[in-house]
Amino acid sequence: MAKLIHESVVCPILIGRTAEMTALQECLEATMSGQGGVVLLSGEAGIGKSRLVAELQRSAEALAFQLLGGQCFPADRSCPYAPLLDLVRAFLAPLSATQMATALEPSARVLFPLLPEQVQHLPELASLPPLSSLDPEQEQRRLFAALADVFTRAASSRPVLLVVEDLHWCDESTLEFLLFLARKTVASRLLLLLTYRGEEVGQSLRSFLAQLDREHLRQDIALVPLTRAHTGTMLRTILPGAASLPAGMLDALYGLTEGNPFFLEEVLKTVLMAEELVKVDDGWHWVRAGTWRIPRSLQDAVELRLARVSADARRVLQLAAVAGRRFDFALAFACGSPGCLSCRPGVSLCGSGTVGQNHGVREARCRAGASPLRAARRCGTVDTRHGRSPAPRAGGTPGLLSGTRASLRDARGL
Length: 414
Prior knowledge:
Elements: H1 18-32, E1 37-42, H2 49-62, E2 66-71, H3 82-92, H4 97-104, H5 108-111, H6 116-119, H7 123-126, H8 136-157, E3 160-165, H9 172-182, E4 190-196, H10 203-214, E5 218-222, H11 228-238, H12 249-257, H13 261-273, E6 277-280, E7 283-286, H14 296-306, H15 311-323, E8 326-328, H16 329-334, E9 347-351, E10 354-357, H17 359-364, H18 372-378
Parallel strand pairs: 1-4, 1-5, 2-3, 3-4
Antiparallel strand pairs: 6-7, 8-10, 9-10
Helix pairs in contact: 1-2, 9-10, 12-13
């Protein structure tokens, strides 16, 4: 039976992000002097974007910033303006009816249809006559101007840090508004911080980012995995009394999690619950199990992402999960038809006819299960000891491999 964990298995301090935090602090200082802007914070799932945002919000609060935050969710792609409505509601929530009326008055008639809960507290504004109808494009611009006015007016009295997280799930209308608002941050005390997963950029977000580039409106901060040294520091910080780590533990955990802080915390929690890592008088004792127990949280995350790719792509990821970090086309081809190689960059080209795994395949490795590659190995059709497939059988068609490079596209979302 698994042991219940009462202590937190979350690192209490931010590790390995000094340069990124310094850059964000400088953005806060610039915003205080009236030079706001847009910061884009990107990185893979679990890399620490939300943790860095939380640290920045604490710093901003200490500098008397007003904090506004919204988050995108997968369902928001079909729900226009969802994160923006969260932002407006968060802005209005602490205000009295009088303060709310003052904050909304210039834009009240435009925003009331979007804020029915707030309207009931403002009868004097709700009784105003409706605005004249316009064509859809003009209606949208009027709404954008009203929403932007709420935030820029707030920034006129005190600096504002406005955060929208997980932009890869954002609807197109919200992205259009954020571009509209970004243009108004340059000479204001408004800092717009947007986060997204770089491996999940769809066409709408790609167009949004390109437009920010063209107008020189963005500053990019990309979070990369922690180094081995930072991973060791993180482990020693989480584990009380761990002046030194058990032999082999750092290499094993770093090899599995590859510097992803969330993965590290989740795997460490699982190891502690399984009592494979126990506190002893002189530190910690680690009993290496034959296989890693993959936390349910990671399994669920992988399953959700695998569900978005085709059956052929899942087959390729299953093969790659067992083949290793580098393998050649012939190896993959020997285990399935060319169609199963049509994957997005969970699998990527590495030159010289080889295929490499990125973060998506590393995740999929946790869910490899009974891989066709293992079956092929048992049948003698694949020799994975050297990362190669055997020579083509008589009558084989090596030329079929020539078309596989162009079809390695379908697993990018992992």
